[in-house]
């Protein structure tokens, strides 16, 4: 009886020792990356148990081995098994828009936006899915539309590009014109804007100009003392040797004023008494230059001497409305040199 009691009292100790020994040899559930899946849900694994490793959706296995084994020491065998995110193809460009993304791996996002004047048709975002494809197709950026441009009374518009139907698109442009004698008041350019409306429409109004005045030393093509309609013209000319500077024709403008009138510019006299000049490619003694007259903006040259090199050279000067400046280097020869020793003058010696 005592022997049985002793065995009974020893049994719990033996049982506890056996369980503890077995627990020391088992493997705990391995601590793996969140992207790795493994079979089984238990917490403890006996030696010899194999665990197959795989990747969660959206990830691709790299390296190996793809299984681990619980060893008798309670440790799992080593593995370099990794799961890398799947990659979607690079997105196509968005015509008339922009796309923004940092990467093309699983769960990456693309954001689409359109340029000014364009509207996004489709999804503005797309996500890289577990199967390596984007969640949505590339959207389109379609231009904002406008109606046909409004036409002012007594006017018309000429589009810069062909317009078909009753719809125009953002960026379409044109030019307004008025039927004569109406003048266009406002901006002649028209454009379909990003808001779907056209720029402000100008007006076509009757515009007249008062009778123009004559110009000094000139004449007009008409002497009518009446109001002139928009775009009517009057021509001017100059008398004698005066030269017209500016446009020969003035126009009645849309603001009721004439365009800028021309003016008549006076000829010049070459103010030297002795010497030779170069005019229109000809070398002429001043006494033979008849009449002594150079027209406005014409060029004539006088001769100067380079004393150091003992050579002559022509210096041009231009007639500006009756004034011809003789270059300072010109030295008028004496009467004797001019008449008896002309071969020594700057115009006659070797030219520099």
UniProtKB/TrEMBL annotation:
SMART domains per UniProt: CCP
Primary site of residence: membrane
InterPro entries, alphabetized: Compl-Cell_Adhes-Reg (IPR050350), Sushi/SCR/CCP_sf (IPR035976), Sushi_2 (IPR015104), Sushi_SCR_CCP_dom (IPR000436)
Domain of life: Eukaryota
Pfam families the record matches: Sushi, Sushi_2
Signal peptide feature range: 1-21
GO molecular function: heparin binding
Sushi domain boundaries: 25-85, 86-143, 144-206, 207-266
Cystine bridges: 27-70, 114-141, 209-252
Location in the cell: Membrane; Secreted
Keywords: Disulfide bond, Glycoprotein, Heparin-binding, Membrane, Repeat, Secreted, Signal, Sushi
UniProt GO cellular component terms: extracellular region; membrane
Cited function: Binds to various kinds of negatively charged substances such as heparin, phospholipids, and dextran sulfate. May prevent activation of the intrinsic blood coagulation cascade by binding to phospholipids on the surface of damaged cells.
PANTHER family (alphabetical): COMPLEMENT COMPONENT-RELATED SUSHI DOMAIN-CONTAINING, MEMBRANE COFACTOR PROTEIN
Protein name as annotated: Beta-2-glycoprotein 1
Organism: Amphiprion percula
């Amino acid at each position: 009886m005592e022997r049985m009691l002793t065995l009974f009292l020893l049994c719990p100790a033996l049982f506890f020792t056996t369980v503890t020994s077995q627990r020391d040899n088992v493997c705990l559930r391995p601590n793996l990356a969140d992207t790795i899946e493994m079979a089984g849900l238990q917490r403890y694994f006996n030696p010899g148990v194999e665990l197959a490793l795989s990747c969660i959706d959206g990830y691709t296995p790299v390296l190996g081995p793809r299984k681990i084994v619980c060893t008798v020491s309670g440790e799992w065998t080593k593995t370099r098994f990794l799961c890398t995110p799947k990659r979607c193809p690079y997105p196509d460009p968005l015509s008339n828009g922009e796309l923004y993304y940092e990467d093309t791996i699983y769960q990456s996002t693309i954001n689409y936006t359109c340029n000014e004047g364009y509207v996004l048709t489709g999804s503005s975002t797309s996500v890289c899915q577990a199967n390596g494809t984007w969640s949505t197709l590339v959207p389109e950026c379609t231009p904002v539309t406008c109606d046909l441009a409004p036409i002012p009374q007594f006017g018309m518009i000429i589009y810069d590009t062909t317009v078909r139907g009753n719809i125009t698109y953002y960026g379409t442009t044109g030019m307004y014109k008025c039927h004569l004698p109406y003048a266009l008041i406002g901006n002649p350019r028209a454009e379909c804007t990003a808001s779907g409306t056209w720029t402000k429409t100008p007006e076509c109004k009757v515009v007249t100009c008062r009778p123009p005045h004559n110009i000094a030393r000139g004449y007009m093509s008409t002497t009518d003392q009446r109001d002139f309609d928009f775009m009517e013209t009057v021509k001017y000319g100059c008398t004698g040797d005066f030269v017209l500077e500016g446009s020969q024709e003035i126009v009645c403008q849309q603001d009721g004023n004439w365009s800028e009138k021309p003016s008549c510019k006076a000829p010049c006299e070459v103010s030297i008494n002795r010497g030779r000049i170069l005019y229109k490619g000809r070398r002429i003694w001043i006494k033979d230059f008849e009449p002594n007259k150079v027209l406005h903006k014409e060029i004539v040259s006088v001769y100067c001497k380079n004393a150091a090199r003992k050579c002559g050279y022509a210096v041009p000067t231009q007639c500006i409305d009756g004034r011809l400046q003789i270059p300072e280097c010109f030295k008028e020869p004496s009467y004797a040199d001019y008449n008896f020793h002309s071969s020594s003058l700057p115009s006659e010696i070797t030219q520099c």
